[in-house]
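Whiteboard transcription, Tuesday session. T.W. wrote the structure tokens on the left side:
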């Protein structure tokens, strides 16, 4: 930046910083970094270098160092899957999830197209009732009915999902159900295999030798703060998606086996403080056969889009917060120091990053958070880490999971993107007249990276806002079938 550039008259810190960025020397490169992030909300700032050499000749094929950047650092996407945290990265995660699910239904991404002939169903599982809540019931014909409170609630009513009688609502059971939901799913898949083997009249060992059950699922929060699962369950041969299932295994077998498997799936939570509890699935579940591509309403494309939509949602969609409530300074212990312990100066011994009473949430959600926090302080529930996951209302599982042989993986999809970027870099080298190594060349890469910070400089935030605006405009024009000007 020129030494005689006086910015004291510029009141806005963001504008002042933007002027400084424009005078660093290579403003185009600064804008290129931000545009490449496509509006990521809080990018990761890295410093370091990487060098790729030909193992035989020692020739440097490509090299990069953040010391050559105008700002001295590299901005990389945060990769957060939550739409509430980063819409840009969550859209990419949703797209990857869509392709992962779609590949397991229609083929592609190294999955054969014959996969669409495998029997498969779409299953939705819900939590049991822990007390009546405000809702919008309908008749079998879809006509709206009054709630048990006597009111016809609109879609946006804030009381939907909240208890009719908060004093009698089983908050402890609700939190413990969320905490054990993933374990309950694992138990269900085990019981489903046992039920199928019994229905086929063979042992589980014989069934596993001829048949494999693959699945992909996502978790979604209901308005009452409890998770439920949407899952694709599919029959495969013993080799997974690469082999067809035996002819005697049909979708009807899956449809008939799911209900008894659900009924026998329970977990017992032992507690001297709150009493022993038996945890199981809710009575309401829905299972339908997935039809072939373009045949019927529940098609491959529809199911993949449905699951991908929920993969980027989180607990905050039920009205809670999207951040941990454990104090970072003391890591939730309430004290700091070595042999002589003192009260944490930030939480003052409460172990909370912010007081639960001050959270901007509905009273029902606050009570679930408080219940999770109180249960997390009991030694018998220490392994559940409920204080850490109080902001998730007790749920501590992954929002998107799949069995190993269902289809491709998110890592494989990211590797393809990385290879494409390297191919683009090699194409740029060719256009610049630099040699490109042969396909069989052994390359050695040396890298050293360190985390610097997260987020943008004030001036960069202005550029990022412009990028977000451009991306939104392009998407709107695409939806409307128009070409950008």
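and on the right, the sequence the group agreed on:
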């Amino acid at each position: 930046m020129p030494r005689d550039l006086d910015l004291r008259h510029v009141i806005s810190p963001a504008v002042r910083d933007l002027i400084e960025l424009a005078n660093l020397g290579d403003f185009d490169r600064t804008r290129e970094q931000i545009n490449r992030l496509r509006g990521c909300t809080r990018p990761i700032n890295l410093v370091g270098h990487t060098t790729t050499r030909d193992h035989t000749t020692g020739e440097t094929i490509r090299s990069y160092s953040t010391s050559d950047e105008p700002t001295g650092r590299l901005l990389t996407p945060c990769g957060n899957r939550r739409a509430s945290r980063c819409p840009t990265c969550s859209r990419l995660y949703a797209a990857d999830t869509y392709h992962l699910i779609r590949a397991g239904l229609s083929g592609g991404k190294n999955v054969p197209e014959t996969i669409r002939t495998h029997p498969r169903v779409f299953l939705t599982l819900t939590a049991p009732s822990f007390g009546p809540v405000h809702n919008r019931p309908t008749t079998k014909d879809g006509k709206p009915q009054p709630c048990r409170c006597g009111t016809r609630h609109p879609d946006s009513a804030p009381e939907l999902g909240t208890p009719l009688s908060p004093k009698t609502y089983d908050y402890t059971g609700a939190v413990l159900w969320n905490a054990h939901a993933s374990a309950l799913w694992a138990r269900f898949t085990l019981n489903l295999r046992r039920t199928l083997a019994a229905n086929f009249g063979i042992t589980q060992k014989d069934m596993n030798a001829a048949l494999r059950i693959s699945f992909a699922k996502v978790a979604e929060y209901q308005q009452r703060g409890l998770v439920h699962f949407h899952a694709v369950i599919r029959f495969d041969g013993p080799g997974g998606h690469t082999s067809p299932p035996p002819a005697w295994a049909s979708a009807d077998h899956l449809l008939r086996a799911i209900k008894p498997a659900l009924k026998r799936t329970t977990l017992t939570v032992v507690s001297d403080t709150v009493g022993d509890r038996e945890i199981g699935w809710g009575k309401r579940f829905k299972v339908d056969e997935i039809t072939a591509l373009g045949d019927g309403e529940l098609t491959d494309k529809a199911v993949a889009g449905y699951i991908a939509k929920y993969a980027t949602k989180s607990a905050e969609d039920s009205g809670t917060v999207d951040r941990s409530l454990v104090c970072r300074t003391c890591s939730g212990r309430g004290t700091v120091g070595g042999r002589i312990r003192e009260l944490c100066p930030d939480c003052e011994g409460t172990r909370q990053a912010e007081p639960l009473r001050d959270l901007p949430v509905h009273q029902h959600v606050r009570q679930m958070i408080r219940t999770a926090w109180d249960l997390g302080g009991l030694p018998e529930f220490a392994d559940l880490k409920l204080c850490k996951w109080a902001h998730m209302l007790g749920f501590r599982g992954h929002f998107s999971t799949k069995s190993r042989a269902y289809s491709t993986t998110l890592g494989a999809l990211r590797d393809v993107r990385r290879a494409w970027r390297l191919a683009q870099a090699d194409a740029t080298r060719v256009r610049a007249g630099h040699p490109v190594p042969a396909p069989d060349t052994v390359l050695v890469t040396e890298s050293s990276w360190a985390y610097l910070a997260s987020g943008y400089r004030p001036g960069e935030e202005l550029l990022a806002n412009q990028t977000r605006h451009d991306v939104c405009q392009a998407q709107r024009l695409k939806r409307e079938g128009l070409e950008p000007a």
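Someone added at the bottom: Residues 87-130+170-321+392-407 form one domain.
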